[in-house]
Amino acid sequence: MKKPNVQLLLTGNELMTGDIVDSNSAMIAQQLKELGLDISRKVTIADDLAILVNEISQLAEHADILIINGGLGPTVDDLTAQALAKATNVKLTEHPKALEHLTTWCKKRRVKLSTPNLKQAILPQDCTIIPNNQGSAVGFKVNYLNCNIYCTPGVPRELKVMLTEQIMPDIAKSIPNKLILDVTRLQVFGLGESTLQKMVDDKLPDWPQSIELGFRAGMPLLEVKLTTTNQKAHDQKHIWQKKLIQILGDHVIAQINNEPLTLAKHVLLKLADNNLKITTAESCTGGLIASMITQEAGASALFEAGFVTYSNHMKTKLLGVQEQLLNNYGAVSHEVVIAMAQGALKNSSADLAIAVSGIAGPDGGSEKKPVGTVWIAWGSKNNLKSVCLLMPLPRHYFQKYIASIGLDLIRRELMDSQEIPYYIIERQRK
């Protein structure tokens, strides 16, 4: 039996005018690929009922699986349910499960269930509900002309959960003979795609073609994927995965089994395992490290205070950095960043600290300390380390990358890693 023919229909005026950039189709394609499936046709149309009805009819006639994305909201231009009912020649009816979901959703948020919201419970008769625990609009599924049609929300975070938890497992059941496809994903920090590929080329030149090696760039974590499509390659994959991890070392954060964790979450888990707390003292990152930490649930048990001391005056007032150090060495220096970390530890109940002071740019640099210069300190009261790096990046990327490096250095500290990270080897300023 051949693989299912998968097609995709995206709807929304915003997509057609460029007000919204389509990232959902990439998300869908990536998840389908992990099942060994590809999208054979993708169509994007405006919020026009007649066009939508026509496209649904044509796509369903040739597809085994059709995913419709968008048009499930409460407004008049959300037409997916109406168009699907018309295309499949069924009635629109109030679905009890959709109504129950809406009622619960509104009750949790202490808002009144309005007439526009009720529109989201009016769905094609006899459709199967696809739960949405992130938003007000449920998804739904119908079978028409032997094509399974999945209707999904346009909000990316809602779509992602629905795909992962509901739709992809359902699609997997329809794949003939359960295609022998296996994907292992690794989270990596501190190595770019080209650097990583060169390491593989140099140290693993006999990498087998039957194990596809792929990279998905991200900020701050890079995802490395090892994909096999037959049993023989699958049986060998663990050997090559072990070899890959050996050459990447502690740049490998973790293997992704379900939802990937953030770098901050990995740090918090290691802090919890060691019953330790952390604090931050930030200048050039403006509190970004603290923000990354506190975005994670459970952070309050491990992080009680962070200090954003952008000016020299506040470095002295809040962290006790001596004016003499600032005058003699400048704010961007080993002496000051160590003093910032010491002050943060002294003024909190934390066991570990990250401190950063640098020149984010685009102005403020000098010949001795150019834009992109940053000092980072990390560790405990009795074991503080520091390093100076040169990262001449745009301001936003500089701040995010430096914040991530600070977290990574603490992660390595908690692992008792003796390895020197690639970003220090390449970017350390002597």
Structure commentary:
- This protein is of the alpha/beta class and about 425 residues long.
- The chain has 3 domains: about 5-170, MoaB/Mog-like domain (Molybdenum Cofactor Biosythetic Enzyme, Chain A), CATH 3.40.980.10; about 180-255, Alpha-Beta Plaits, CATH 3.30.70; about 265-425, CinA-like (Maf protein).
- Helix content is about 40%, strand content about 25%.
- The chain is built from 16 helices and 17 strands.
- Strands 2-1-3-8-7-6 form a 6-stranded mixed beta sheet, with helices on both faces. Strands 14-13-15-16-17 form a 5-stranded mixed beta sheet, with helices on both faces. Strands 10-11-9-12 form a 4-stranded antiparallel beta sheet.
- The longest helix is centred in the C-terminal third of the chain and has 21 residues, at about 395-415.
- It is globular, with a radius of gyration of 26 Å.
SSE inventory with pairings:
Blueprint: E1 6-11, H1 13-17, H2 24-33, E2 39-45, H3 49-62, E3 65-69, H4 80-88, E4 92-94, H5 96-109, H6 115-118, E5 122-124, E6 128-130, E7 139-144, E8 147-152, H7 156-172, E9 182-188, H8 193-203, E10 212-216, E11 222-228, H9 231-248, E12 252-256, H10 263-273, E13 278-282, H11 288-294, E14 303-308, H12 312-319, H13 323-329, H14 334-346, E15 352-358, E16 373-380, E17 383-390, H15 395-415, H16 422-427
Parallel strand pairs: 1-2, 1-3, 3-8, 13-14, 13-15
Antiparallel strand pairs: 4-5, 6-7, 7-8, 9-11, 9-12, 10-11, 15-16, 16-17
Helix pairs in contact: 2-7, 3-4, 10-15
